[in-house]
Structure formats: C-alpha cells, structure tokens
Amino acid sequence: MSFSSLGLGPKLLQSITDVGYTTPTPIQTAAIPPILAGRDLIGIAQTGTGKTAAFVLPALERLAQRPSQSRHPRMLVVAPTRELAAQIDEHVRMLGKSMNIRCATIFGGVGERPQIAAVRRGVDVLVATPGRLLDLMGSGHISLAGVEIAILDEADRMLDMGFLPQIRRVVNALPKQRQTLLFSATLSKDIEKVTAEFQRNPETVEIGRRANPADSVTQFVYPVPKSRKIDLLIHLLRDQALDSVLVFSRTKHGADKIARKLSAARISTVALHSNRSQGQRIAALDAFKNGSARVLVATDIASRGIDVEGISHVINFDFPMHPEDYVHRIGRTGRADAIGDAISFVTPDDEPYVRDLEKLTRKAVPRKRMEGFDYSEVASTILSHHPRPSHGRPQQQQRRYAR
After folding, report:
1. CB 225: neighbour CB atoms within 10 A?
2. Considering its fold, how many domains does the chain have in total?
3. Residue 206 to residue 171: CA distance in whole angstroms
C-alpha cells in the first residue's frame, strides 16, 4: 500500500515526500479512506503509530476539495495538553505547507492577544485545548459555526469526567452537520458509549488490541521501598546506555524534587509540569530534544503529546494509578518501530495498580532485581508477585490537565 493509492491529492503527496514519509502505517491505511469519504470515525491504535497524520492528511484533503473564503475555522482539533496541541499544529503546518492552509493554536499559559489576532486574520484549522478555547468563545473572539470537521485527539482523556463537561460545551457550539473524528491509543467501553453523543454511525478502526503497549517496548518492574526509589533511579542512571530518559512523577512537587536530586548527582535534568510557565515548558522540551538534558522528569502531561525521537527509556518513578496512563506513558519510547525500555518502580502500595494493568493488558510484567543495588531494606513481601496490602487501595484521584 502506498500513500498515492489512498486517494490523497498531489499537493499532499508532495508534502508527504518532503517530510520523508514512505509507506503509510496500518492506522493511516485503515483510517484515511473512510475519512476522505466523509464518515465519522473512531481510530484506536498504539502510541507512536502515526495517528496524527492519520487524521491530518485526509482532513486537509477534504478542506482542499472545497475551498472557502471564510475567516472562521473549518477544522477544529481539540487536545488535552499544550504540548500535544503544539505538536498537532506542527503536523498541520508541515503537511499543509503547499496548500496555503492557515492554522492557529489556542492554549493557556500564554497571553491571549497573539492568539486572538491570529484568529481575526482568518484560519482554516484551529488546534486548541478546551479551557482557553471556551474562554475565547465566551468573549466572542472565536466562532465554531463554520466547522466542517471536528477532531478529538486522545479521545479517552477528552471524554473522561475531567474534560467531558467542557467538551460538551464545545460540541454544542458546532454545526449539527459535520464530520467528527475521535483518535486514541486507549478507549474503554464506558468511554466509547459516550461517543454516541458526538458522532453519527461512526466507523471504528482498531489496529492491534486496544490498550496494549507497542511490542517494541520491553517492560519490567523493580520492586523497591518508597524510601529507596531516588537511590535506585540514580543507580540506574549511572549506566550511560540510558542516554535519553523520560521519568514520570505522579505530582508536580515530586517532579521538581526528583529533578533537584538528579541535578545534585550531576545528571543533566529538566522538569516539565503544569506549574511551569509556557516558556519554561518549551525550554525543557527543547533541552531534552537536543540532548543538552539527558533526563526529563514530568507529570502525566508528558504522557500524551511528547514525540521526541530516540527516547531510550521511560521510567515510572511513581507507578500510575490508571492502567491507560501506563500505556500512554511507555508509548513515549519504542515509537515508529524503534525499540525502547519501560522500567517501573513498584512499592507495596502500588501493587493494586500493577494488577489493574495486567488485567487490562492480559500480560504479566516481569519483575527484576537491580544488579549491584543494595536491597537490604526491601521487605521480602515486596519481591513476591502480587502481594495484597492490608490497608486496601488508595483512593483514586480525578484526572485533570492544565489548560
């Protein structure tokens, strides 16, 4: 299968050649034809498999088939994080550069004025996070009355209880006659029921078993007491083979603390979370991408929308409470058929979450001991498989992202 056989026009095919794409990925092969045909679609595929291009390419082609002189957006893409919104914007500009596509990105953390000015000049494609989008809609700066194609990226997160009220408000401002596309690496049956509110008889394209991490990622866990996690992390990072490492923390305070400890150990580290200014977030990502920072410590805002080539290892310093977050986190490595390692630190309190993950993926995650690391403080129960803590499961927190 080639891109030319999927029904894309010559301008897009030239852009595809210019950016170095050669053969469409399975999700692109399956999703592009029905989107070109105008169908609503739910696209589910593992992270790092080209989902962004799977909706950007056919959506741009549909816009090109019916040029419009309107200044209002004709295509809306809603994403949960600033980083993902910026990444989608980059794809739109890169793939639509020969088509005179006007694109604007709307998200919080920066001033409104440049974003308002961009919209006033006229846009074809609007990429936005929900909060800032609703703010500018409420102040009369953005109208969605002309949107022909609406896309929810990371749809599972956009339709969970953290974002659902905002998404309903956005969708209510859209024309009834539109094409609606939902894409994600994970989509629970409960969330899939919610999609009926927004789509009409959608076609579902599912590549691989939903919620399964990519086969190119090797996964294992290190049982460790909470008090020794930072020691184990520093011990691991003494191995220079871990040359581009994304470390996940459950909290913003924890991310800053880990970054300080690693920096004190002379390991070049930057931190990324929603309490950082947009300039700080961009600087941290740039440092990680160009290799001046070997380690990026982040909260779950980095589990979606971070597309950095060559991430060798993902380390779950704090094991995620939701198994879908685990899938998205470790999908930051092993992308586009590359290989990568995903390492998780597991304390006794984390065991219920490990069981949830293994139930979802139907696979056991191998346990390992770190060679050369002092495990003298580790209780023997920690090293057994699936012990049940006596105090029960910690209360789950509602998942939210910064605007």
Report:
1. 16
2. 2
3. 24
Domain of residue 143, CATH code: 3.40.50.300
Instruction: Classify residue 40: in a domain, yes or no.
Output: yes
Q: Which helix (H) or strand (E) holds 205?
A: strand 203-206
pLDDT for 105-115, tens place per residue?
999 888 999 99
For 237-259, letters b (16+ CB in 10 Å) and e give beeeebebbbbbbbebebbbebb
394 falls within a domain:
no
Question: Do 147 and 12 lie in a common domain?
Answer: yes
In a domain, 29, yes or no: yes
CA–chain centroid gap for 360, Å, is 19
pTM, full prediction: 0.72
* Structure confidence by residue, pLDDT tens digits, 224-281: 999 899 999 999 999 998 999 999 999 999 999 999 999 999 999 999 988 888 888 8
Indicate if 39 and 154 belong to the same structural domain: yes
Same domain, 345 and 276: yes
Distance in angstroms (rounded) separating the CA atoms of residues 8 and 60: 9
- Which token pair is 161? 């209880």
Q: Which two tokens stand for residue 396?
A: 């789950």
Confidence of residue 210 (pLDDT cuts 50, 70, 90): low
Structure tokens at 42: 């739910």
Tokens of 271: 């931190």
